[in-house]
Automatic annotation (TrEMBL), chain A:
<dbReference type="InterPro" id="IPR036047">
    <property type="entry name" value="F-box-like_dom_sf"/>
</dbReference>
<feature type="domain" description="F-box">
    <location>
        <begin position="15"/>
        <end position="67"/>
    </location>
</feature>
<dbReference type="Pfam" id="PF00646">
    <property type="entry name" value="F-box"/>
</dbReference>
<dbReference type="InterPro" id="IPR001810">
    <property type="entry name" value="F-box_dom"/>
</dbReference>
<protein>
    <recommendedName>
        <fullName>F-box domain-containing protein</fullName>
    </recommendedName>
</protein>
TrEMBL record, chain B:
<dbReference type="InterPro" id="IPR016072">
    <property type="entry name" value="Skp1_comp_dimer"/>
</dbReference>
<dbReference type="Pfam" id="PF03931">
    <property type="entry name" value="Skp1_POZ"/>
</dbReference>
<dbReference type="InterPro" id="IPR036296">
    <property type="entry name" value="SKP1-like_dim_sf"/>
</dbReference>
<dbReference type="InterPro" id="IPR016897">
    <property type="entry name" value="SKP1"/>
</dbReference>
<dbReference type="InterPro" id="IPR001232">
    <property type="entry name" value="SKP1-like"/>
</dbReference>
<dbReference type="Pfam" id="PF01466">
    <property type="entry name" value="Skp1"/>
</dbReference>
<dbReference type="InterPro" id="IPR016073">
    <property type="entry name" value="Skp1_comp_POZ"/>
</dbReference>
<dbReference type="GO" id="GO:0006511">
    <property type="term" value="P:ubiquitin-dependent protein catabolic process"/>
</dbReference>
<feature type="domain" description="SKP1 component dimerisation">
    <location>
        <begin position="118"/>
        <end position="165"/>
    </location>
</feature>
Length: 381, 167
């Protein structure tokens, strides 16, 4: 057998042996590197750059919980990627100098800068005038989407204009299973057509979930009806959350409380019964519709989170009706944990660790909201 | 039963039939030459030419195959926290490969690739990937004597794109 030296020598000569390996062999080696390694090796030579570029498309992306784009009251935009555990955090700040065309861009990648950034932002609020997201932020987002597999992209306090929709549509073309969160966003107009235009483009973006919170435009019952009937054509969307302020400012600057409105239209249960997250704080849904969703969750042992107002509080008399169903009769066990005026039940599918918990909780605006959550674990363990 | 393998430098290796079958290439050649485990005459009268493998490399390949001849077929992969998928290299394999200089490692990988011995090939490619993993750009270039043919403008463009890469 061949002689072995005591330590690995890279090469006895100055030959560039790695570049002479067959391409298919190099690809297999590169597929076992991570994104950082591939970026570093890509500046070694044209061949390395080419192989690294191909491998970047194949390797498993690092999973992270979210990417976010936020505009602050001083006009600055910040793009962030938070890796779980804070091991790696990416920040890009686009400073809109004097709100003019001049911009200063800084990109950081370090947990230390994350802390500095947090301290700076504590003094900043929401911008009065929201402006278009600068193209540099989209370029940064494109990079981060190639590098990470994010569960969601959050847009906070930004203007959602045509340019945004076009850019985000293109960026998400090859991305699967991502949720879009919109928090305190603004549209260029407040007409019904502007809302429908935004919502229709949003649901056609091949996303897995949509979260809309505290948007400035008014969600009328017509908007809801249009939206909920449009969304059923997009079964890839399995998480739906609309969380609006139940307070509004009238023409005289008074803050008034808005009551949730009954949603009487019959929503297609085939679609809504398959959602894993269904949260509305502004609609009151018919109790029979909610019970039908519960029944489907129990039959399919499907994990779900449902938070919504119901026409009446779910009680034992409703849950006992579930037992009349042939598919689940004898298969479920209902445990009543209700306290005074506070219904609380757990339902177990016999022979499994599947549980459904039903309770009512006060929402921030003081309304009682049904909270139905399932889990695949022994809750009493 | 034994099978005769002949290397590019005309060295003959007589190996157990099971070891010969670990190579997909050798298996195909044996099939083409009607060599079967139950037909001793066919094995004795034929030898398998392997013009892409030298005697020294063949000896290393056989040493690896001897160790793994009784292994169950398996594909052990794991993902680290950053999503990097890696092939699991056993302690024996790490020890087996640790002293090979890079040139010999490349020759051994070339042989594993030609002979289609997946386990050996995966061990070596993972060993090379581990050599690269975590190194800086200039360390990688120096370690492998990579001749840089990028222009300054191209380097600048790459640095601009990967500005977040460096801590």
């Amino acid at each position: 057998l061949s002689h072995r030296s005591s330590a690995r020598q890279m090469s006895s000569s100055s030959l560039d042996l790695i570049s002479n390996l067959p391409d298919d062999v190099l690809h297999l080696i590169f597929n076992e590197l991570d994104y950082d390694d591939l970026e570093k090796i890509s500046s070694a030579s044209k061949k390395m750059q080419c192989c690294a570029s191909l491998a970047k498309q194949k390797i498993t992306k690092e999973p992270i919980s979210k990417l976010s784009i936020t505009q602050y009251s001083n006009g600055d935009f910040i793009l962030e990627a938070h890796s779980d555990g804070g091991r790696d955090n990416y920040f890009m700040i686009v400073k809109m100098v004097s709100l003019g065309a001049e911009r200063r861009i800084r990109k950081w990648r370090h947990p230390k800068h994350y802390q500095q950034c947090l301290i700076t932002r504590q003094h900043l609020g929401i911008p009065h005038e929201k402006s278009s997201i600068p193209s540099e932020i989209f370029e940064g987002l494109e990079y981060l989407l190639k590098r990470f597999s994010a569960e969601s992209i959050c847009m906070v306090s930004v203007l959602i204009d045509d340019a945004f929709e076009t850019r985000i549509h293109a960026l998400l073309a090859g991305v699967v299973n991502i949720r879009l969160n919109f928090d305190r966003i603004e549209l260029p107009g407040n007409e019904e057509a502007d809302k429908k235009n935004f919502l229709s483009r949003l649901i056609s973006m091949n996303v897995s979930g949509i979260v809309i919170a505290r948007v400035k435009f008014n969600w009328s019952i017509e908007t809801y009806t249009w939206f909920l009937y449009a969304i059923v054509n997009f079964p890839s969307i399995t998480q739906l959350e609309i969380d609006n302020d139940l307070y509004f400012e009238d023409d005289r600057g008074n803050w008034l409380e808005k009551d949730p409105f009954p949603f009487t239209s019959e929503m297609p249960i085939e679609y809504f019964g398959n959602l894993s997250v269904l949260k509305f704080n502004e609609l009151i849904l018919d109790i029979n519709f909610v019970l039908e969703i519960i029944k489907r969750c129990l039959i399919n042992k499907r994990e779900c989170q449902i938070h919504m107002h119901t026409t009446e509080r779910i009680g034992m008399q409703h849950l006992q009706k579930l037992g009349n169903n042939n598919d689940i009769r004898d298969n479920i066990e209902i445990i009543d944990h209700s306290l005074e005026n506070t219904p609380r039940y757990s339902i177990r599918v016999r022979g499994s660790d599947f549980w459904l918990i039903i309770r009512y909780a006060d929402s921030v605006d003081g309304h009682k909201i049904a909270q139905i959550e399932s889990c695949n674990c022994d809750i009493f363990e | 039963p034994n099978v005769k393998l002949v290397t590019s430098d005309n060295e003959e290796f007589v190996v157990d039939f099971r070891i010969a079958k670990m190579s997909v290439t050798v298996s195909r050649l044996m099939e083409a030459m009607n060599m079967s485990e139950t037909d001793d005459a066919s094995l004795l009268s034929n030898s398998i030419p392997l013009p892409n493998v030298t005697k020294a490399v063949m000896a290393r390949v056989i040493e690896w195959c001897e160790k793994h001849k009784n292994d169950e077929p398996k594909e052990e992969k794991e993902n680290d926290k950053r999503g990097r998928t890696t092939h699991v290299v056993s302690d024996w394999d790490k020890e087996f490969l640790k002293n090979d200089e890079f040139g010999r490692l490349c020759q051994l990988m070339g042989a594993a690739n030609y002979l289609e011995i997946k386990g050996l090939f995966n061990d070596i490619s993972q060993t090379i990937a581990n050599m690269i993993h975590g190194k800086k750009s200039d360390e990688i270039a120096e370690m492998f004597n990579i001749h840089c043919d990028l222009t300054e403008a191209e380097k600048k463009e790459i640095r601009k794109k990967t500005a977040w890469c460096e801590d």
